[in-house]
């Protein structure tokens, strides 16, 4: 197996008297979409912040592209939970600001054209001159996506990017992200607690137990064929088994597995499961 | 509940109140005593004026008299006939110049320093005791030290304006910078924006409305203090002019000066308010 693009190696994050998670190992391959699923308080956002370089582990390290990370990088763009747009800039200026960081030598006109192009890609060409206060929640998050993709990062990090949106908007944006990520063969890592979102987008889904002292209990391989879309997703064979498996984990096992570590537990390779493959032989009977 | 009231109603009531006030004043301030009519030494009378020499009191001016005097003053506001006789416009201009100089210097010091304090918890903690002690000091208390060290009354009054306008700007800038939202700083960090780009493109615009609030408070205080400072140091300026007219017992002039000081103060505040609207952002 090739070296993964990202690899978490024994990462521990703790505050005085409180271990968020301990000895976390996982990798993300190039072009792969990995989702991290777990309840609030299990340190999901901390995992993402460490990968983004905004937070640092107490022990262990994160290797990206063969090098241990020491801080934030333009190669790992973040789509934040709150859109995190600067309210004094128009949508276009927000994207242009990111572009000006990536390309310090670019002139105003070039930045503007590139920002417009990035906004067109997420269907916001006509709203480029509006400030965030004049945009709906979904449009703001689209600008956030455009800003992250405009700098052509090697990896996209998303921290529950759609959790603040209504269901309809969320669905539209999930499809949009699925399309954009597939088009660019973008490596992506996403935090979510929305099971369907994870099944729609992810190649692999990491399941985390409840905190404190959370761990990655298992890795669910999403073997449903790609490209997927929301309209037909639930008709795919194996979808319900996959969904039930993750739901069951979130409802009960995330709690019962918390804290206890089985004797044969190897943090370096949490068990892989393929629930979507299971019903096939059953269906053949 | 606060109902919205049509503007014309407010304006009408304002005008009515003003009319009532001026009318009552006009009636109340009747002619003062015309003196006792006792014959006095003509030389004494020439020195003090007939009425005063005979024991009469200067009457409080009536609005109509003040209006006449105002017209006189405003017809030629910028004349200069020697050091002690200059138009009211010249005096206001002197005061504005001092406020501009003191306030400008204070902004040049307070905004960068406030930025540093806001960004550095160490500096914030270290400088806080000094700021807390010096801030409540009346700026006029600095005047003797300023006169002693600077030895120039005009520059001393500028220093006093400086010292009174520096605190609100300093504290507001520091507060504004401290309150910049974590998520915007995180955006800048993930974009590797660098210190300068983050300071000018993210922190400064984010804190600008708070900084402008501080500037607005400062200019108000500066305009309050300049009148008192000029009364102390004398020479020129609207404060000195007020004191001079008090010595002349020209009460009309003092009423006019009060009105003028109020209007100029209002305009200064409105000017900064306009700038504040320019930098305001809505979340």
From TrEMBL, chain A:
**Membrane disposition:** Peripheral membrane protein
Q: Where is composition skewed (Basic and acidic residues) in this entry?
A: 263-275
- Locate the coiled-coil region(s) and give their ranges: none
Task: Locate the region Disordered.
Answer: 260-285
Write down the PROSITE patterns for this protein, in alphabetical order.
ABC_TRANSPORTER_1, ABC_TRANSPORTER_2
Question: What range(s) does the ABC transporter domain occupy?
Answer: 6-235
A GO molecular-function term, please? ATP binding
Q: Which UniProt keywords apply?
A: ATP-binding, Cell membrane, Membrane, Nucleotide-binding, Transport
The protein's location, in the record's own words, is: Cell membrane
One Pfam family assigned to this protein is: ABC_tran
Similarity comment: Belongs to the ABC transporter superfamily.
- Name the record gives this protein: Nitrate/sulfonate/bicarbonate ABC transporter ATP-binding protein
The organism encoding this protein is Paracraurococcus ruber
UniProtKB/TrEMBL annotation, chain B:
Q: A Pfam family this protein belongs to?
A: BPD_transp_1
The record describes its membrane topology as:
Multi-pass membrane protein
The ABC transmembrane type-1 domain covers which part of the protein? Answer: 92-272
Q: Which InterPro entries match?
A: MetI-like, MetI-like_sf, NtrB
Q: Does the keyword Transmembrane helix apply?
A: yes
- TM stretches of this protein: 99-118, 154-175, 221-243, 249-268
Location of the protein in the cell: Cell inner membrane; Cell membrane
Keywords from the named record = Cell inner membrane, Cell membrane, Ion transport, Membrane, Transmembrane, Transmembrane helix, Transport
Please tell me whether the keyword Cytoplasm is annotated for this protein.
no
**Protein family membership:** Belongs to the binding-protein-dependent transport system permease family.
What is the protein name given in its UniProt record? Nitrate ABC transporter, permease protein
Q: Which gene encodes it?
A: ntrB
């Amino acid at each position: 197996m090739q070296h993964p693009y990202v690899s978490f190696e024994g990462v521990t994050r703790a505050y005085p008297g409180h271990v968020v998670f301990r000895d976390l190992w996982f990798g993300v391959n190039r072009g792969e979409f990995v989702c991290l699923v777990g309840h609030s308080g299990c340190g999901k956002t901390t995992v993402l912040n460490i990968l983004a370089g905004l937070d640092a582990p107490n022990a262990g390290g994160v290797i990206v592209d063969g090098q241990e990370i020491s801080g934030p990088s333009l190669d790992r763009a973040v789509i934040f939970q709150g859109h995190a747009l600067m309210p004094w800039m128009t949508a276009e200026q927000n994207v242009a600001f990111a572009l000006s960081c990536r390309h310090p030598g670019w002139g105003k006109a070039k930045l503007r054209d590139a920002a417009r192009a990035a906004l067109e890609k997420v269907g916001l060409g006509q709203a480029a001159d509006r400030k965030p206060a004049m945009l709906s929640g979904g449009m703001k998050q689209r600008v956030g996506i455009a800003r992250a993709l405009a700098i052509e990062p090697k990896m996209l990090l998303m921290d529950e990017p759609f959790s603040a949106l209504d269901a309809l908007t969320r669905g539209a944006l999930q499809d949009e992200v699925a399309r954009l990520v597939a088009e660019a063969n973008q490596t992506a890592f996403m935090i979510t607690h929305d099971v369907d979102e994870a099944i729609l987008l992810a190649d692999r889904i990491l399941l985390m137990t409840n905190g404190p002292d959370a761990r990655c209990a298992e890795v669910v391989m999403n073997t449903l064929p790609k490209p997927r879309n929301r309209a037909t997703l639930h008709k795919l064979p194996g979808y319900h088994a996959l969904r039930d498996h993750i739901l069951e984990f979130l409802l009960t096992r995330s709690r019962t597995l918390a804290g206890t570590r089985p004797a044969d537990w190897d943090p370096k390779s949490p068990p892989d499961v393929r629930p979507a493959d299971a019903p096939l032989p059953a269906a053949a009977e | 509940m606060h109902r919205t009231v049509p503007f014309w109603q407010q304006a009408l009531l304002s005008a009515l109140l003003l009319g009532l006030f001026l009318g009552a004043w006009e009636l109340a301030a009747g002619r003062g005593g015309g003196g006792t009519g006792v014959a006095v030494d003509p030389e004494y009378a020439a020195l003090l004026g007939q009425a005063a020499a005979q024991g009469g009191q200067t009457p409080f001016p009536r609005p109509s008299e003040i209006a006449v005097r105002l017209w006189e003053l405003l017809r030629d506001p910028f004349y200069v006939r020697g050091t002690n006789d200059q138009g009211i416009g010249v005096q206001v201009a002197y005061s504005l110049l001092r406020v501009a100089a003191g306030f400008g210097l204070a902004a040049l010091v307070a905004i960068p320093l406030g930025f540093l304090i806001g960004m550095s918890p160490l500096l914030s903690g270290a400088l806080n005791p000094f700021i807390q002690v010096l801030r409540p000091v009346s700026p006029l208390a600095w005047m003797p030290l300023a006169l002693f060290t600077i030895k120039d009354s005009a520059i001393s009054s500028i220093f006093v304006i400086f010292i009174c306008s520096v605190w609100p700007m300093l504290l507001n800038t520091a507060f504004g910078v401290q309150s910049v939202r974590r998520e915007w700083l995180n955006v800048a960090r993930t974009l590797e924006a660098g210190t300068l780009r983050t300071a000018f493109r993210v922190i400064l615009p984010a804190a600008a409305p708070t900084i402008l609030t501080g500037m607005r408070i400062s200019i108000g205080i500066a305009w309050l203090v300049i009148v008192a400072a000029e009364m102390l140091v004398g020479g020129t300026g609207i404060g000195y002019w007020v004191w001079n007219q008090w010595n002349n017992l020209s009460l009309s002039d003092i009423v006019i000066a009060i009105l003028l000081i109020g209007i100029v103060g209002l305009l200064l505040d409105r000017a900064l308010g306009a700038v504040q609207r320019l930098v305001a952002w809505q979340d």
